[in-house]
Amino acid sequence: MNKTEKAPNRMLSMLQMKCPNCHKGPLYKNKSVWPLNKMMDMPENCPVCGQKYEIEVGFWYGTGYVSYALSVALIATLAIAYAVLVGFSWKDNSIFIFIGVMVGALVIMQPWIMRYSRVLYIYVFVKYGRGQTLKSSE
Q1: What is the SS3 assignment for 18?
Q2: What would the pLDDT profile of 60-88 be if each residue is shown by its tens digit?
Q3: In a 10 Å sphere around its CB, with 0-12 CB exposed, 13-18 middle and 19+ buried, how is residue 65 labelled?
Q4: Residue 74 to residues 9, 23, 84, 102, Cα–Cα distance (Å)
Q5: By C-alpha distance, which of 61, 62, 42 is closest to 52?
Q6: For position 60, what pLDDT does the model report?
Q7: Alpha carbon distance 108, 124 (integer Å)
């Protein structure tokens, strides 16, 4: 990256699941989470800049913590929204309805939570224009 070139919007690149090094190449082989058995398929390197995605063996194990944090944030958001809109009460079993809503939302959102946990995780370790590419390691 030269000094006159402006870095792309990091947040937009994260939402679009783009390479953290060049913000152009896709992080996943499929844009969609469907089919579910291929939703986590990633190329080994960015097709645009050559950034290696699995930086070291076992790199992606840390995404479990990120996925957990995203799930807790989703539950907290749902709990606040539910408390404001419906309210919690033991008398009308609304707490049990909330638990059902929460479990349903987590099941539906899990594919995206898993994908974005990887996106957030790799963006912590690879900065724009300073990543480990095939060109720089050869």
Answers
A1: strand
A2: 999 999 999 999 999 999 999 999 998 88
A3: exposed
A4: 24, 27, 15, 9
A5: 42
A6: 92
A7: 26
